[in-house]
What we know:
Blueprint: H1 3-6, E1 10-15, H2 22-34, E2 37-43, H3 54-67, E3 73-78, H4 82-88, E4 93-98, H5 101-117, E5 122-127, H6 137-145, H7 156-167
Parallel strand pairs: 1-2, 1-4, 2-3, 4-5
Helix pairs in contact: 3-7
Bound molecules: adenosine-5'-diphosphate.
Amino acid sequence: MSESEGNMRICVYPGSFDPFTVGHHDVLEHALAMFDCVYVSVLNNGMKHPVFSVDERVEMIQHMVDVEHMQKVVVGRFDGLLVDYVRSVGASYIIRGLRATMDFEYEFQINALNRHLAPDIDTVYFMARPEHSFLSSSGIREIGTMGGSIKGLVPESLEDIIVERLKKQPSDC
Ligand code: ADP
């Protein structure tokens, strides 16, 4: 590690991202304004029945990062304990987004567990923009599989890929 890397502020933005939405994108932009390097990391085995495979999700997010020439983003995946992964990449912060009280209850619990396991790792929360407070990956999956428009709800660079992929999905998700 070089001297400058030693002082870098590194964070991990973990999630299912099934698929990545403009809500996720907004959180990522806020994280990029505060950190020198953001790992956007897809949780492997986090969901029992994901629509997009982990490979597809990693590829899609990487495509968006390339198209938008996002500097300072590393796209990856992880298994197991988040705090172990955070340490393994040299990060000291976790990023999460908060939409409503429902997110808060869940995040409050996870935060307590993570702080128990790793008191040296802090979590930074960004509030969803009001216009994104209704937005979820499951909503996108539902609209997309039923042929509705997801324009403006997912990053533009991913819209066609997600639309095509969801068309092939049975509409019972
Ligand atoms: P997870 O299964 O880990 O909750 P998600 O992909 O659903 O994965 O969400 C990843 C993170 O992004 C979570 O912190 C979630 O609260 C946040 N998030 C999801 N949707 C939005 C949104 N519309 N606006 C802001 N944050 C969001």
